[in-house]
Amino acid sequence: MHEGHRSRMRAKLEEGAMLYDHEILEILLYNACPRVNTNPLAHALLDRFCSISEILKADVNELISVDGVGKNIAEYLRTVGLCAEQAGNVEGAAVLKTFGDCKHFVSLRLRGKTEEHLELYFMEKSGKVKRIYSYTSSDRNMAEARAEEIIRNISLAKPDGILAAHNHLNGSAQPSANDETFTSQFQLICNMNGVTLYDHIIYADDNYYSFGECGALEKIRAKLSLKNVFKWISNSD
């Protein structure tokens, strides 16, 4: 019976349905109580602490004072609370507001790599990096990223914009024809998903090439704007 109920609750969570506080807490407790009905425990905790926020702030000894809460559950809830507190601490997050910030971050990420890596930094409007996706391939001189995977990640993370970066192993940061093709294709993906491509930076032995800084990205944007793309499609008929 519990498994059927848990399956229904998990389905609500996955579908993004509205969940009451006791339902959220009940699902959270599944991890600490794999074979117990957590609904009564969720209600008992809310009756004592009044809100999920206060439950996650409570110390272990106070949590244990609630009937049904053992040490393992109390430690689990306190750990979740600490994670939530750290999640609100932006000091550890990278915030890229200037080209200098971007160069420094890219160098930290790509310096010393012995394989070519493509990295996509999903960013909030504030410049905070919220997700990093890194791609390589079986060929150390080439990185591969599947368009459908990028589009799926954009749909899930919903960034304001993306900074792309990759490294060259030959010591030259100058873009190849493949780099220019990728930038154009990636700009089109960003256009179609309502995301801004902030820049594409190539890194090689502390040398940098920026499609944005040199004006190449602006030319690509103008050429591949949705208006121009649809005009080109129309003219091709």
In the predicted model, the low-confidence regions spanning at least 5 consecutive residues are none
- CATH architecture annotation of the largest domain: 3-Layer(aba) Sandwich
Q: What spatial order of strands do you see in the largest sheet?
A: 2-1-3-4-5
Question: Whole-Å distance between the termini?
Answer: 60 Å
Mean pLDDT: 89
Q: Tally the beta strands.
A: 5
Strand count, sense and closure of the main sheet?
A: 5 strands, mixed
The geometry reads as elongated
Tally of DSSP helical segments: 11
Residues in helices, as a percent range: 40-55%
Question: Approximately what portion of the residues adopt beta-strand conformation?
Answer: 5-15%
From N to C, what is the helix and strand string? HHHHHHHEEHEHEEHH
CATH superfamily placement of the largest domain? Cytidine Deaminase, domain 2
The assigned structural class equals alpha+beta
Which CATH top level class of the largest domain fits? Alpha Beta
Total separate domains? 2
CATH topology of the largest domain: Cytidine Deaminase, domain 2
Query: What Rg do the Cα atoms give?
Result: 24 Å
Describe this structure in words.
With 237 residues, the protein is α+β, with helices and mostly antiparallel strands. 50% of the residues lie in helices and 14% in strands. The chain has a five-stranded mixed β-sheet with strand order 2-1-3-4-5, with helices on both faces. The termini are far apart. 23% of the residues are buried.
Produce a short descriptive summary.
With 237 residues, the protein is of the alpha+beta class. Helix content is 50%, strand content 14%.
